[in-house]
């Protein structure tokens, strides 16, 4: 996903437990750039041309909820522990995204599968959603990226300012919801989990 400085960070919540305390989440809500929106529309067909309840185009009200989960090991290794962390993180992300959609009750709430880059629900698009490229386009201060070499040429990896490469990023795309309503729903989810 292309980088564009016209994005805006609306909310950032650091480190709250989720998924019955099995994982630690960090959430950033972003109003994405036009370049991101163009590319997201190509890989997530549900974003094309439809309208929000108030008649606005979905892309006009698109917000991104970036979730980051702390893992027990850096996700650059191939080990049983790494695969277990990825599985728990994937299930926790899907639970968070589903609960967020349920709590909002309206608007469009969709997300790509973090493992495959294909839409979790709905038809596949013209490509796949690359979480690392997307996170780069969000331009959240403090996050950096590094290239990890491997037999097939390697890949770019996210480095969290506190967790290093022990982080699992995943994005949720939300449209037709007021930013304040989305941010409040996320606050409620974070507070609910802390209280349990």
SS elements, strand count: 7
Described by the principal axes of the CA atoms, the overall outline is: globular
Count of alpha and pi helical runs: 4
DSSP strand content: 25-35%
What share of residues is helical? 25-40%
How does the major sheet shape up? 5 strands, antiparallel
Strands in their spatial order, largest beta sheet: 1-2-3-7-4
Radius of gyration, in angstroms, nearest whole number: 16 Å
Terminal residue distance:
37 Å
- Structural classification: alpha+beta
Average pLDDT over all residues? 86
Low-confidence stretches: 1-5
Q: Which sequence of SSEs, written as H and E, runs from N to C? A: EEHEHEHEEEH
Please, how many domains?
1
Could you walk me through the main structural features you see in this protein, from its secondary elements to its overall organization?
By secondary structure, this protein is an alpha+beta fold. It has one domain (8-195). Helix content is 31%, strand content 26%. The protein contains 4 helices and 7 strands, in the order ββαβαβαβββα. The chain has helices at 34-43, 80-104, 131-138, 179-195, and strands at 8-18, 23-31, 63-70, 108-110, 144-148, 155-159, 167-175. The protein has a 5-stranded antiparallel beta sheet, with helices on both faces. Strands 5-6 form a two-stranded antiparallel ribbon. It is globular and about 45 Å long. Mean pLDDT is 86; it is low at 1-5.
């Amino acid at each position: 996903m292309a980088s564009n400085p016209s994005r805006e960070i609306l909310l950032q919540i650091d480190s709250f437990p989720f998924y019955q305390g099995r994982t630690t989440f960090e959430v950033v809500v972003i109003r994405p750039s036009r370049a991101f929106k163009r590319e997201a529309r190509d890989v997530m067909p549900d974003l094309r041309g439809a309208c929000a309840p108030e008649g606005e185009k979905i892309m006009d009200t698109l917000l991104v909820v970036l979730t980051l989960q702390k893992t027990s090991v850096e996700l650059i290794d191939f080990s049983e522990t790494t695969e277990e962390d990825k599985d728990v993180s994937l299930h926790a992300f899907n639970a968070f995204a589903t609960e967020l959609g349920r709590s909002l009750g309206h608007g469009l709430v969709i997300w790509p599968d973090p493992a495959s880059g294909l839409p979790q629900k709905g038809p596949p698009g013209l490509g796949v959603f690359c979480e690392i490229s997307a996170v780069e386009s969000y331009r959240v201060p403090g996050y950096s990226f590094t290239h990890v070499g491997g037999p097939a040429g390697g890949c770019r990896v996210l480095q969290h300012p506190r967790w290093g490469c022990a982080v699992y990023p995943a994005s949720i795309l939300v449209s037709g919801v007021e930013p304040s309503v989305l941010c409040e729903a996320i606050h409620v989810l974070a507070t609910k989990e802390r209280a349990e």
